[in-house]
Amino acid sequence: MGLIMFYQLSHSSTAQTARALLEKSRVAGWQVMVRGTDQPALEALDQALWHGPTDSFLPHGLDTQPHANLQSILLGSGAAPQEYEALMLIDGAAFSTSEVARMKRMMILFDGQNEAILNQARMQWKEVATLGQEAQFWSEASGSWALQQSRPAD
């Protein structure tokens, strides 16, 4: 079991935050599944990642495209492939307890201005606590990312 990190977005977009975290995940050598609940939003993230800075190319693909199983960063709404070490959740996507058990890192990005998504993140935090999982809550409300709460593993 790895660390679960919650990111409450206030100033940055999902694409900006995802790019930064995906770059760090790539440096760590992890394959990452980015799970969303909205196909157009996943396609927009796909385009944002392709058209990002030229000095930080992030090879990735949508799970609906050919050769999706070969991607080191996979965007989709389905289950994370068994060999993937990290899972990023956007747009209120859910996780399973089996994914929590096998992931080295889970990153949950949520819009702090969207009440429904905020409530979903609160429920996920409680579920993580029930599972005895190590977790961190990060916020950028002050203008830069700061750790707001940390929960050790049981």
Fold blueprint:
Elements: E1 3-9, H1 14-28, E2 32-35, H2 39-50, E3 61-62, E4 73-76, E5 86-89, H3 97-102, E6 105-111, H4 115-130, E7 135-139, E8 146-151
Parallel strand pairs: 1-6, 1-7, 2-4, 2-5, 3-4, 5-6
Antiparallel strand pairs: 7-8
As a whole number of angstroms, the C-alpha radius of gyration is 15 Å
Overall spatial form: globular
- Relative helix content: 25-40%
CATH architecture: 3-Layer(aba) Sandwich
Number of helices: 4
Q: How would you describe the oligomerization state of the chains in this entry? A: single chain
Decide which structural class fits the backbone. alpha/beta
CATH fold-type name:
Rossmann fold
Report mean pLDDT, rounded to a whole number.
92
SSE succession: EHEHEEEHEHEE
Low-confidence regions: none
Major sheet size, sense and barrel closure: 8 strands, mixed
Q: What gap, in angstroms, lies between the N and C termini? A: 11 Å
Please report the first level of CATH classification, the CATH class.
Alpha Beta
